[in-house]
Fold these 2 entries.
Entry 1:
Amino acid sequence: MLGEMSDEMLAELRGEAIDLVENLASLCAGLHVTLQHQADVASESVGELFRLLHTLKGLSQMGGLTRLVSALHQVEDFVAAVRDGLQSFGRDDLDLLNDLQDALEKIFHALPTSAESSLMVVVERVGACYFARAKGERLPDEEPLPDAGQLLSESQSAGQNEVQTADLSGTQTELESELQADLQPERPSDSSPNLTSQMASPVAADGPRATVSSDVESFSAEVQEASERMEAEAASRREASAAAQAEEADAFEATAEEREAVEKFRLRDETLFASVFSPGTHSNTTALWESESVENLRRVADILCLRVCEAGSLVVFAAELDAALLESIAGQPVIELPKDAEPCGALPEPWCAFYFGVSLETEGAPAVPAPEVPLVEISSSAEAVPVAPLAPQPKAHVAMAFEDFDGPNLGGSGNKDAIPDLDPEMLQDFLSNVDELLESLAQSMLALEADAGDKNAIDLIFRSAHTIKGTSGMFGLRAIERLCHVMENLFDRIRKGDVVVSTPLIDALFQGLDSVKAMFESLKEGKTAELPINEPLAKLKAAEAGVAFEAPGVVAQGTVMAASQAAPAPLPTLATPPVKMSASQVPTAAAPVPTASPAAAPPASLSATSVSAAPKSKDDKATPPAAKAEGVGTIRVDLKRLDSLVNLVGELVIDRSRFARIEEELRAHDPGSELCNLMSESVLLFSRHMNEVQSIIMKVRMVPVGNAFYKFTRVVRDLSKQVDKEIDLVIEGGETELDKTLVEEIGDPLVHLIRNSVDHGVEAPDAREAAGKPRKGTIRLKAAQDGNMIVITVRDDGKGLQTERIRNKAIAVGLIKETDQLSDKEIFNLIFEAGFSTADQVTNISGRGVGMDVVKKNIVKLKGVIELDSQLGKGTCTTIKLPLTLAIIPSLMIGVKGESYAIPLVNVIETIRLDPAEVQHVGASAFVKLREQVIPLMPLTDAFEMQDMDDRFWYRSGENVEGVTSRATLRANQTRGRGNRSRMIFVVVGVGEKRVGVVVDELLGQQEIVIKSLGRLMGRQRGVAGGCVLGNGRVALVLDAGEMIEDATFRKPLPSPGFAHASLATANVTAAAASKSSTGVSSPTAGGLGRVS
Amino acid sequence: MFRNVTLSLQTPESAWSAMESTLANGARDLMETGAIADAGIQHIGLRLAHEEFLLAVVHVREIIMLPTVTYVPRAPAAVEGILALRGEIMPVLNLRRLWRLERGQPTSHTRVIILQHEDAGFGIIVDEITDFVSLESSLIEAVPASYFAREFAVLEGVAKVGEKVRGVLGFERLLTLLPSSADEEAS
């Protein structure tokens, strides 16, 4: 832990500790003086002493000096007792305190290097003495007393652990027996690594296993039979032992819970010990438990196992002390147990036969499954070990790896919901960095999956996991730390080549990553970061061992298959027999199975099933690192600040136009004056600078869409696995930039589209092959810039959309009529209707028919358009177009009835002044012939139903009305002057190919405006894209050309199928509005479209 | 002593939560005795034509002079239009129209009260800000049966202040007059 603190933190810690120790020194001096005059010490001093010790203990904890922590704790306890009046503080105690202070001073000064052990011994001695004092015993002189008082906290937590392990034994054994069932098919392959270890040299910490000989095959068959026999017996036995207490369990076999406990301690720093008592010392285990030796041992060690039988009594425990010390504590001989073999093997008869079923897997060594010793023993000696279960081995092997982290972490002292008490600023810092780390982790894992030999990826993963582990540990995020620790170890081994990258491994890693992500999310929401991680832990351990771990009940056929192949995976240079063996176990070739064939592939490389190592993905791999290289000179900016900045720039743009107006006026008034020239110059400069600021600011919020796109590779990978298809995701144009919020908002709709492609678009590999297509389907995700639009396409080479089915479904649902004629495009667009789905089966991926309309809504919300195109048998393509820049738009200002409106210049084709006589009327509509085109005319007043504006608009600004009318009259006069006829002004507005002429009262010039939303509470108004704030502080509505054109086109009640439902909806809304409104204000005239919200 | 220490080590959390719940209970007790509640809630008094109303101050963001309001076609009846407040565009309500009071002219006393709902603001046009009243919630009575539906729409009660009976505007109800809520209901 010490090594993972940042240097600054460590320096701070050291500084603080040194200060405290100095305070302690002066306190001791004070106490010395007091004790010279009186027998007792002042309570304030005691209180202060306690606080000092407490803080020092806390600092030591942060610094990871566990021995210090426990010793300080003992001293603290003693001082607390003094404070409470239970003990008195005398000269002897002061001496001890001085020694302590001295040692502490040296220790903390020495940081960050570890202190000399002699200093530690001193500290521990002091602690022990105080502990003894507390107990009322005489103070010994020099000799190191039971560092016994030892790890007070540890023994307590040990006590807790004991209790917890006991509690959990029930659930664990259930899990185990379920595991048992699930792992049945795997046993053959399980055994082969078993035997491999037998054949190969044990504990080869370097390099992959030796090759497996063909003996494996025959041997494994034998083993299988034996296993199956033992299996049944052991299963029943295990259930019995689980239910019973230690006393009733078999004398020579450890219960499951005992096994768990031993396994846990095997992996930790503590040493395993056993103490044997002569026969007859204890009548039963309770007596053993309560015996003085065991009671003493309990204070300093974790008791793992107790047994009493005619042959004597046995207690197995774990402690961090050495045997000599323990012997003096227990009052009798203590034997150290090996960790790398069956622990009790070293014990005298009869306990040497006591079986734990320990897996020899230590964290540094390669996956060496169950030891061979029991195998031999079983065949030879039958007396000492009545039923030595062989069967549990394959299963026990996995059970051994089953680490129960959640038990102690989430259970016990009720600190499951404790939110770590952290410095919020530091935590925020950390959290904002963590997302990047996790993302780069995910990317690297994908890269690794594609190319198992990718050294960079492995290194990056290792380092990222290490960093996250360190900082999480520092913040006390236990579960995250543990998970990262396991992952990091795993990667270290991969780095060294001990473990080979395989699909189950990657899966397990992804699951671990997901867990970590979930925990960080939870932490961000202010909840606890401790979530259950047993399953990912187990998966990781199992994957490390080359066995796929299935949580009970979740046995995906595919993964079981993969598991039986993954087992031979650690042996990259596979001879054919094992492959054949496992292949024969796999009758059906499911999609993930092709991993068997790459066994012959290039060394140590198992290609993933979904995201293949296509050159394209290598490019993708190249671009993120490139993007990261750019990121070297970056700074993190709070998004809110950025938003304010963008807003302010928008305001500045308005101010600029104000200046421009003033400048114009000035020039009109007083041309050529000095002031005028100065003003013109300033305005010019200001404008130029503003332009630059504007373009830079707009870019500031732009991020490459690729950031969002690369996440989808994972989505495709997971999904295609789920549906047993092979699909590649190809990303093009990831560097295209889009506003950050857009990129985020586009994520969900894209995921939906991709899911559709995976689920409904791309066919199963067999079907594809039959159709003459490559087995692997491709989904192409492309982003490109087109003018001021961003075009994003999702294209798959699947089976395409079937227009007939869509048509029929639409008729069935009532969207269109039998007789309606629709173009293909129109049919495709029916898919965007709510409740529409032609999928026969609703999978949990898609097909429920609630997707596409939501997607369309989201796109429309972003002011974009979405279209479908498809060719039967060839594929489907979805195109999304989004406006590039949302904010600053050059527009044409127009005036109607005294109100100003803005039309984005993008949509303005031209402005025309026309003699009203040239307008042609057809029925209720007006047209004008412009060059060769016929353009329908639409007065804005009609489109917006402004005829009742006078009724509905009370607070019209008087000044404005005057101002405008005067200008309007002015113009009218002008035009009248010309031809004595008032001319009609209209603006030709266009979107795509469509045109409409909007009749207005006047043209008010061009202006750059900042389109803003009308406010969340205002909702969406038809025909209005938003509002803009003008130079005079007024709001002008910005017209949405597209909607206006649609409205204009469909004002004639044509039986257009696409809008049949729209008019229906309109009617409903109008009716609803009418019934809701109780004001009696005149309802919209029937002629118009009414309010379509 | 050993045992005692053990126990205290094991229950820091429970000790803390015990303390917390005592505090919470204590606070609740305090509230129930009304020691704090008696102070009353601040309301702003406003006038629409000849009618006077009250509105809880807690929702009020600011009060401004009547700016130029922009007409929004096809907006709901109560909406007069939109205005811009330091760059933020928001809707503004015309309650006089809602209450079928006679159309008046804006005067020098006319104000717009800007209310805040979460992240969005909206305004209501009033003819005058009359006073500030501290009103205990117990004094707010139900809207009399003689009132019209339109009045029910915005009032959450009436209160007698001095001699006059004034309607108490309900913030939530005001929200329903805005288009966004209509959107939500229709969809």
Entry 2:
Amino acid sequence: MNLYVLIRFFIGFLFIFSGLEKLLAPYQNFLYVIQSYDVLPDGFETAAALSSPWIELFLGVFLVVGLWTQWVLTGVRVLLAAFIFIVSQAIIRKLPLTECGCFGEFLSLPLPVVVALDSILWVLTVFLSRKIEIVSFMSLDNYFNEKESKSAR
Amino acid sequence: MTTWVIVVVCVIAVLGSKQFCESARTRSQSVESRVKGDEGAPVRIMEFMDFQCPACASGALYLKQFMVEHPRAVRLEMKYFPLPMHRHGMESARYAECASRQGKFWLFHDYLVERQTQWKDLIDARPAFMLMARDAAMDTKQLEVCLRDKSIDAVILKDKAEGKKLAVTSTPSYFVNGETAVGKSQLETKLKALLNDSKK
């Protein structure tokens, strides 16, 4: 176990928790959060409320088990960049939001804290992508690669 | 292959857990003094609100107008859901529950939402609530006794606990014929759809 793997697990479990929390509650709760950010057109808001928790969950699960790790890290970065943009525009526009709604009722964070945390996570995923061989320790990617190279011998 | 196994396992686990959570969500009996509208109305709304929340005031004013325009369409039941981030959330609910015990709930409710901007930023909003109680022709001596009654808090917290069981996290949350709508925009969409359905 190394620090990179711990960070991979941390980000993975964070995404699993965030996705699960939204998926187990009525989707209208998260739809209300999206509507409060006032950034997507009407039809897309419902689509985003229904799909993004699943995306968060799958990215988290794949990151923890270490399957398609490089692609998943890219997906995590894209999602984090979207969160940073959405929350930042709410701060700039001074929308009347006191907390992010990222983790439902379990954790309430002020918007600037969310931008800071997401930015740190984004930077961490860049580091993970650059050290993919070390990050892949204890991963299915590693397991399949080893299996493949054994069968090739 | 492994990818699909993981995806299918996740989907089954989440949908199973969701089904379990939804079956655990039950509703309690109505409190008659906080119900208004035609008893046989086709649309039944249960509203969870915090009187200090601006979105709740906006939703309440919209619902009031909707019920004036469609007097036989809606039966509305109000439940307290004071949020800890609102300084006067609990106190305003106490006054409203005491108004309910004097049969003045809806009048006091309307004053609270219509005048919200006048009291929500005050350090002490109790004089503003007292003024509204007088405007609603409430018995203020009876009100003062009522405010000291601990059972008032129990009623409010019971409503809030029920809201939490129903997965309410934000206010205003509505249950329109049992379906969740959070915020005025979702409520509007649901009510318009129900009106269109009834016209067909």
